[in-house]
Amino acid sequence: MKLIQSHDNPFFKELVKLAGSARQRGKAGQTLLDGTHLLAAYLDSGKLPLNILLNSAALKDDEVEALLKRASGVAMTQLDDKLFAELTELKTPTGILALVDIPQPLPADSRFALLLEDIQDPGNLGSMLRSAAAAGCDAVYLSKGCADAWSPRVLRAAMGGHFALSIYEASDLLAVAATLPGTVFAASLQADAGLYDCDLGGDLAFAVGNEGAGLSKALQDAATRRFTIPMPGKVESLNAAAATAVCLFEAVRQRSLVVA
Fold first, then answer.
1. Cα 56 to the chain's mean position, in Å?
2. What gap in Å lies between CA 155 and CA 171, rounded to an integer?
3. At 99, is the secondary structure helix, strand, or coil?
4. Cβ contacts of residue 192 below 8 Å, gap of 6+?
5. Is the domain 112-259 a CATH 2.40.40.20 member?
6. Confidence of residue 260 (pLDDT cuts 50, 70, 90)
7. pLDDT digits (tens, 9 = 90+) for 49-93
8. 77: number of CA atoms within 13 Å, CB side?
9. Could you give the CA distance from residue 185 to residue 171 in angstroms, rounded to a whole number?
10. What is the pTM of this model?
11. Which CATH superfamily is domain 2-101 in?
């Protein structure tokens, strides 16, 4: 196992760039997974990391040891504890990071998708990806204005959801909406039907807009069907991630009734 103790190490310098720069992640096609949960999810998806990075405490951790056995043959690097701390945003790090290739999805006809327009909060985006993975979506299309899907904060919020989805970044959502099979649904205050009155049993996609501005008029016009989310309480709207989860799992509920 290689040991790195200097800030001047070229490999460490590249890791620092990856941890802090969306541009560098895009250029390299790589990102860092922080913690045991994300690495376990990545291994569960059938992939192996390029390199596993450890601090001194991780070498004595049973959970880490089990993951290292699963990743037998992968290059491993021990970082000085201070160097390791520069790569993690966690207040209580588990002592393990994994350098991985960002998956490149192949073109495919999605049957249950999300179209996300200009979602800028990393926590919201991660939650949406987590909900999409849990609901069984096969694809998520992100506009150019969305947060970096492979940033540390989005990865943590999604809790491994990335590895159960095909994620298409910098997508032309109008073009996607025009080519997807089935119905494209969009929430709108001007809709004449409620979510629970819509037939969500077939091929579909939900279009979700920016946290503040909502869905653009162009994408609303491109949607096949508009709906409202019933809210009998005394609030004007739902958080974008919460609204997405409501929509996805109403589709799950309806589909489960068809199967039953």
1. 30
2. 19
3. strand
4. none
5. no
6. low
7. 999 999 999 999 999 999 999 999 999 999 999 999 999 988 888
8. 19
9. 18
10. 0.94
11. Ribosomal protein L30/S12 (3.30.1330.30)
